[in-house]
Amino acid sequence: RMFYETSAIEIAIGQVTSKDLKRLEELCEEILDTGDTSYKTIQRRNMAFHCAVVGLSKNQWLYNAHKLMMAHYASLHFRYVVTQKDYADPEQIYKEHKTIVNALGLDNVEDAKKIVKGHMDRIKLKIETVLFSGNSELINSGDEFSQV
User: Fold this and answer.
1) What pLDDT is attached to residue 142?
2) Distance (Å, rounded) from C-alpha 65 to C-alpha 51?
3) Side-chain half-sphere exposure of 136, counting CA atoms within 13 A
């Protein structure tokens, strides 16, 4: 995922339009929409943002490969959330996404890649800690997510 998103930024930088930035801003704002703060909605909005960033590359192969990777990521992230009861923080996601948009707006490829990497590393560490610790349980029988 890191490769796809940073590669997309390298391709897109210098070609990002004000319309593109406006769309990314809108996707950022949707994260903070208080109408529905369920895990599923926040993650759907998060994924839409990341797919839009990759879409800036206008590379269909990269976009499709990333979209497939995001589906795999979503299942790992969900497994983490179920075991840890650590739900997505919309304000933190908003802030991190906003810094990505700002770097893209300044055509700063290195900063944008660094910010995306940091954004993903934060979650990656959480997921790895739980899933590869050897003692994680996926779903308890009484768990609210067991009917997914």
Assistant:
1) 44
2) 10
3) 17
> How far is residue 85's CA from residue 71's CA, in Å, rounded to a whole number?
20
Structure tokens at 40: 């599923």
- Residue 116 has which token pair? 């995306």
**CA atoms of 127 and 135, how far apart (whole Å):** 13
The pTM of this model reads 0.78
CA atoms within 13 A on the CB side of 100: 31
Residue type, position 84, single letter = Q
Assigned token pair, 36: 């529905």
Token readout for 86 is: 């650590």
User: pLDDT averaged over the chain?
Assistant: 81
Q: How far is CA 53 from CA 12, 45, 76, 128, 137, in A?
A: 9, 13, 21, 24, 33
Cα of first residue to Cα of last residue in the chain, in angstroms, is 25
Query: What value, to the nearest 5°, has the Cα angle with vertex 117 and ends 46 and 53?
Result: 45
pLDDT, tens only, 101-140: 999 998 888 888 998 888 888 878 877 777 676 554 544 4
Instruction: List the structure tokens of 115.
Output: 């910010």
d(CA 67, CA 1): 9
